[in-house]
Recover the amino acids of this structure.
């Protein structure tokens, strides 16, 4: 394995950490509804638990309502029950074949709690990125120990990996700030 391969692997894994963080942020509720909010809800579908998105079509009906259209007529009651029992605090209402999920307005206290959750998620993403930096630096040090690279190459690659890490952490900070702004906007 060469220094370039170590760096490329580290960059790829760091990028995956940032993408994972983005998907986690999408699940945190802001003032407006997002169908991804219901991704964590699982429904009993003939004995197996499936994500809601695999048994129904999720859409935004208006600025405060998510629409859930089951693909099978008999699934409506099960979907409604699954949403109600989830820890999201939502109260779905059936309207013919469509299930309407109104999003209650958020209180100031709840907004502050959510910003803490976002900061915690951001810190977890930063820790993952720093761990990847450590793994990449260890891999380069092993190459140095095995005399496959020079000390200058080792130092240059560590600086390069540090710049990459700084760039990824800056991206995470930017995403956290953006999400906090979304949450606190009334």
């Amino acid at each position: 394995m060469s220094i370039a391969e170590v760096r490329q692997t580290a960059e790829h894994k760091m990028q995956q950490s940032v993408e994972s963080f983005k998907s986690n942020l999408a699940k945190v509720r802001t003032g407006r509804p997002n169908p991804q909010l219901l991704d964590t809800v699982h429904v009993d579908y003939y004995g197996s638990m499936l994500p809601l998105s695999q048994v129904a079509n999720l859409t935004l009906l208006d600025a405060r309502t998510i629409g859930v259209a089951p693909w099978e007529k008999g699934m409506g009651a099960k979907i409604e029950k699954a949403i109600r029992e989830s820890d999201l605090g939502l109260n779905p209402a059936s309207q013919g074949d469509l299930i309407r999920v109104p999003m209650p307005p958020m209180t100031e206290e709840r907004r502050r709690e959510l910003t803490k959750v976002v900061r915690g998620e951001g810190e977890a993403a930063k820790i993952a990125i720093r761990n990847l930096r450590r793994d990449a630096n260890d891999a380069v040090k092993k190459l140095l120990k095995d005399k496959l690279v020079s000390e200058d190459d080792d130092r240059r690659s560590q600086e390069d990996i540090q710049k990459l890490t700084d760039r990824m952490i800056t991206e995470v900070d930017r995403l956290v700030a953006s999400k906090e702004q979304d949450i606190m906007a009334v």
The CA atoms of residues 140 and 154 lie 6 Å apart.
